[in-house]
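Second attempt. The first submission of YbaK/aminoacyl-tRNA synthetase-associated domain-containing protein had a stray character pasted in from the spreadsheet, which I only caught after the job came back as garbage. Lesson logged: always re-copy from the clean sequence file. Corrected sequence (166 aa) follows.
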Amino acid sequence: MMSLTIFEQLTTLLNNHHARYRVMEHPTAGRSEEVAKIRGTQLGQGAKGLVCHVKGNGIKQHVLAILPADKQADLSKLAIAIGGTRASLASPKEVDELTQCVFGAIPPFSFHPALKLVADPLLFERFDELAFNAGTLERSIILNTQDYQRIAQPELIHFIRQDDND
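This time the job returned cleanly.
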């Protein structure tokens, strides 16, 4: 099963870098709010991963964009920051090829050379731990936020949609 391979890659990477984390097995939950309740974490601790395709200005780049689960992405901001003119969500087929994960189970790490990892800085500002699905919808990792940033080293880009109340 491919998703177990991703889980094994994740735990090996975290162990090799002496990360502070724990694994949680749980029932499948389809929405970020549901899985946060099951995990006992705040919604904003969830590290939501969006696989996007940035195009324009000669750029054709797949991006794994990580943001807090209680926020929405502004894909045009993301595209401009990468150097493109537009961004869209990748197709389920592209998501599968680039992450080897089902939609909703994508961890905030890129194991594919063609998938650029970026994160919104807000991800690192509010919580000491981040929670994310670890390659399957039935398994989560709760990881020290500083350890995540140190190990994954995502490029920091502001791409959260600004609402009137932000």
